[in-house]
Amino acid sequence: MKRVMWIENKSEGLAGPARIGWVEVKEKGKRLEYQNRAFRSLCGQGYKANYFDMKSRKEYWISGCRKDGRDALYNTNVEIDENALEEYWKNIRRMPENIGKRKFRASGKY
User: Fold this and answer.
1) Residue 110: DSSP 8-state
2) Residues in the chain with pLDDT < 70?
3) DSSP labels for 5-70?
4) CA-wise closest residue to 62 among 48, 45, 76
5) Please, which residues have CB within 8 angstroms of residue 18's CB and are 6 or more apart in sequence?
6) pLDDT in the model for residue 13
7) pLDDT at 47
8) Cβ atoms within 10 Å of 37's Cβ, excluding its own
9) pLDDT at 45
């Protein structure tokens, strides 16, 4: 199953660069694939991270995108993959006027 998800690199600190793109969900969510990379669940063992890149071992926060856009814990820059723009802005956020917007600054919860 594929779905548009939030992918935030946590290997450099609490607020890492984030992307929004189509992710292939495998093994009931225990394994994810995105842009020729495979991620494995940390099974609750990560600090502000829930997956790790199986090749580089870097930790990530990967989750479904929220309708209210409050995906980030801390302010961070976000880039949306070209093929995910319509799904994200039209169907998830319900803001079709933003379909051409590929980058934005996400406000964090903290």
Assistant:
1) -
2) none
3) EEEEE-TTSSS--EEEEEEEEEGGGTEEEETTEEEEE-TT-SSS--EEETTT--EEEEEEPPTTS-
4) 48
5) 6, 7, 8, 9, 71, 72, 76, 77, 78, 79, 106
6) 81
7) 78
8) 14
9) 82
In sequence order, which residues have a C-beta less than 8 Å from that of residue 25 and are 6 or more positions away?
1, 2, 3, 32
Q: How far apart are CA 97 and CA 48, in angstroms?
A: 32
Q: For residue 50, count other CB atoms closer than 10 A to its CB.
A: 18
11 Ramachandran zone, left/alpha/beta (phi>0; psi -120 to 50): alpha
Residue 74's SS3 state is coil
Is the Cβ–Cβ distance between 80 and 88 less than 8 Å?
Answer: yes
Token pair, residue 27, equals 């093994």
Residues 77, 59: Cα–Cα separation, whole Å: 17
> What pLDDT does residue 12 have?
80
